[in-house]
Amino acid sequence: MERRKMIIAGLCLAMMASGAAAAEEGAEAQAVETAAQKLIGKPEEGAFEVTLKNMTGNDITSVKIKGADETEYTQELLEAGDIFAKDEVRTLYFKPSASEEAAGDTTEDGTSAEDGAAAETETAAGEGGSAGKEYDIRLVMTDGSGAEVTKELHAFPFTDAKEAEIALEDTAAFLKYTSLLTGSEVSTKEQEAGRAAEGEKPKKRDWGDAAIVEVVPQTETTSSGSSYDSGSYDDYSYDDYSYDDYSYTDPAQYSGGGDDDNCVTDGLFY
User: In total, how many domains does the chain have?
Assistant: First the structure.
């Protein structure tokens, strides 16, 4: 009986040791995978962190970011020469500038930045957006023909997504992720497609205060001194070309006194 107990205890210890070894190996493998995984941006204290999977079907050669209220994309997050390959998974890091952080330290009513951020996060999540200052991301991709394609992701959900997929359909790139606050699946396809369609519409020309010029036909003077209106033909009348003054005169009066015979007088036959 004692021997049986010892055997069972030994088996239990062996199983425990095996499980611990497997767990350790798994942790080591995960650490190696994490270390080998390429990054977008730099991991630093206070930075946003979102794991991205490139499901666009294209290689991404540039990832730039800007504030939604800014006009130019100036900050490149992907290192020069690096390629975010299709189907690849990377972690995106982005830390707002010190001036942007300082702007959110306190609120007008004196509440802490943390309390204000929490309230903004809850509100933004209900509207499908991100809390606080919003940021847009511009992606430059290389398609199958080698041509570059530029797409934008607006109001990137740094505070509402831990993992997200970048997808591409029709004319728009968009995100698919699970909301941290609501737990529901989110797709930004409709919003991004609407923005893309709006951007493709031809812009109407704004004439502003431009003067309206009225074109008036000019009157030109001929060499004889008469004038005519170059814009109208109403004055071209033929009334002066009258044949009323061309009356018939009897040739006899030019006979010069000739007789009644048919003869040549003054070059005429009578």
Answer: 1
